[in-house]
């Protein structure tokens, strides 16, 4: 739909401040407060109108079409004014964005966002706080620290006074990748201080751990062999027996395990590693246990499924992604550590920013980032508006929906369910009776592409045990079973159409000409003569 922003009938005129050589209405300040209010209102009205009109998660525009639209914009052209520029952005970006709130969006770990968080986003964007040092953030520093403490308490870590090095602490980050990287950096530094050489450091994880684990090892200067794969059970969860054997094998080589990474919510299957038995083994050998709960962290507030995270309180560090299962706008993640002292290696002091003798509570002392948005405000407002149980009820809703879809697919003869889930993913293949596995394999990317190009539904594809399959990632608590059945019918129709098209191409004498109502029927006799 075209932008609903009011058209600019004439170029904006300004009254310049004497001596000023720039547009003095361009920046947000007291004198432009009313312009700010009007601008935000108009943009909000435009987005609201688009939300009300959206019927599918994507416009279906092709890559070449989108590239042409972008290339047509002259970024060095004459200024058009704020209103016209936002109209243009609405028709370019919002018109062709992916709408995660649409129930037929089921592709990745993207969630619809809580309305209170959107309001908070507007507030923090306008004020533009940076929570790196106290003198830039004041109360925001204490609000973020309180949320870290709240999260630590939900995990089961001990919380207490800020001068107690043995209690939990943490920092908000840009996402799970940064949180995982910082956790492994801390584990590396702890081991390095104990005399371990980089070339002998090993990190244990499963083959389905997040790719950021291997990427972090590379960035931390560890050898190519640093990440050692631990075996899993049939559901892709880390096997404690396999972990025990791997720990023994590495000890025999003389190398050192600096961290074991358990996953609470694998990206594809949505399964949770057995945290208590893994923690037992880590405690026995004295190694760092990091739990990547980027996906499964919503269970911390689940009224009915919190027990699935039993044992997470025994981790040394935990990744949580609030912009996944807490329904927060990107970005909103955190790394939480069981003992505050473990964050010490991150600290770096500069005279112009956070001198060592400064007693102010500077967050940059424990963050890999310097300038950092006050993303914690979004979660703060969401918890105050909806309550932790309210957020948890939405987490339970998407898990319940996934369970219902699993039951549906189990009785559908066209589909084959792949594995189980403890969260909200559904893995499946279109493979009715008589369709060989190789052809079913080939259909997976083709079906996904047909649906994406239509814009009507988005599903993901992945590979499980060597076989490609389709994946539904259900993170919309307002989506219904009927909505997801509609997506599955689109999958079925796309697969039918692809197979029918192949049948026509493979036919020696395509039937279309014989039956097309606008073509004269042609009968060729054995001698080739037309009668």
Identify the notable features of this structure and list them briefly.
531 residues; four-stranded antiparallel β-sheet; globular; decarboxylase; lyase; PyrdxlP-dep_Trfase_major; PyrdxlP-dep_Trfase_small; PyrdxlP-dep_de-COase
Can you walk me through this structure?
The chain is an alpha/beta fold and 531 residues long. Helices cover 40% and strands 11% of the residues. The chain contains 16 helices and eleven strands. The strands form two sheets. Strands 1-7-6-5-4-2-3 form a seven-stranded mixed sheet, sandwiched between helices. The chain is globular and about 65 Å long. The two termini are 55 Å apart. 37% of the residues are buried. Mean pLDDT is 92; it is low at 9-15 and 512-531. InterPro entries: Aromatic_deC, PyrdxlP-dep_de-COase, PyrdxlP-dep_Trfase, PyrdxlP-dep_Trfase_major, PyrdxlP-dep_Trfase_small. Residues 1-22 are annotated as: Disordered. This is Pyridoxal phosphate-dependent decarboxylase family protein. Belongs to the group II decarboxylase family. Keywords: Decarboxylase, Lyase, Pyridoxal phosphate.
């Amino acid at each position: 739909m075209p932008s609903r922003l009011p058209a600019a009938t004439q170029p904006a005129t300004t009254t310049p401040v004497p001596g000023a050589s720039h547009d003095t209405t361009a920046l947000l300040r007291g004198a432009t407060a009313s312009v700010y209010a009007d601008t935000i209102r108009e943009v909000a009205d435009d987005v609201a109108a688009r939300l009300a009109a959206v019927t599918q998660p994507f416009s279906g525009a092709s890559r070449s079409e989108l590239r042409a639209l972008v290339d047509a914009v002259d970024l060095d052209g004459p200024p058009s004014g704020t209103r016209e520029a936002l109209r243009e952005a609405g028709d370019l970006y919002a018109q062709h964005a992916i709408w995660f709130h649409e129930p037929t969006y089921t592709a990745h770990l993207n969630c619809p966002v809580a309305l209170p968080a959107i309001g908070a986003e507007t507030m923090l964007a306008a004020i533009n706080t940076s929570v790196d040092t106290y003198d830039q953030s004041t109360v925001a520093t204490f609000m973020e620290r309180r949320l870290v403490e709240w999260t630590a308490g939900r995990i089961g870590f001990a919380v207490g006074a800020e001068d107690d090095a043995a209690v939990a602490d943490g920092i908000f980050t840009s996402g799970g990748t940064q949180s995982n990287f910082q956790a492994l950096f801390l584990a590396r530094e702890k081991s390095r201080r104990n005399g371990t050489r980089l070339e002998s450091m090993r990190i244990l994880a499963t083959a389905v751990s997040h790719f950021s684990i291997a990427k972090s090892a590379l960035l931390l200067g560890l050898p190519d062999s640093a990440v050692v794969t631990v075996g899993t059970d049939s559901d892709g969860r880390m096997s404690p027996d396999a972990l025990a054997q791997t720990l023994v094998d590495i000890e025999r080589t003389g190398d050192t395990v600096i961290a074991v990474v358990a996953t609470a919510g694998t990206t594809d299957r949505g399964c949770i590693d057995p945290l208590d038995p893994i923690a037992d083994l880590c405690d026995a050998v004295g190694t760092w246990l990091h739990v990547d709960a980027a996906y499964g962290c919503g269970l911390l507030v689940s009224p009915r499924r919190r027990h699935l995270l039993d044992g997470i309180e025994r981790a040394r560090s935990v990744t949580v992604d609030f912009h996944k299962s807490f329904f927060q706008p990107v970005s909103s993640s955190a790394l939480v550590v069981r003992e505050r002292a473990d964050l010490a290696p991150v600290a770096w002091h500069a005279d112009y920013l956070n001198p060592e003798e400064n007693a102010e509570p500077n967050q940059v002392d424990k963050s890999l980032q310097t300038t950092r948005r006050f993303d914690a405000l979004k979660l703060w407002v969401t918890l105050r508006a909806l309550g932790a149980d309210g957020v948890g009820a939405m987490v339970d809703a998407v898990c319940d929906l996934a369970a219902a879809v699993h039951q549906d697919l189990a009785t559908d003869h066209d589909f084959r369910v792949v594995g189980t889930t403890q969260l909200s993913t559904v893995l499946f293949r279109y493979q009715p009776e008589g369709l060989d596995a190789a052809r079913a394999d080939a259909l997976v990317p083709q079906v996904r592409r047909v649906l994406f190009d239509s814009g009507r539904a988005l599903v993901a594809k992945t590979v499980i045990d060597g076989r490609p399959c389709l994946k539904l990632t259900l993170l919309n608590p307002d989506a219904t079973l009927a909505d997801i059945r509609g997506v599955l019918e689109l999958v079925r129709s796309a697969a039918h159409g692809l197979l029918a098209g192949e049948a026509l191409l493979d036919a020696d004498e395509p039937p279309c000409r014989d039956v097309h109502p606008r073509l004269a029927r042609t009968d060729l006799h054995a001698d080739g003569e037309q009668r």
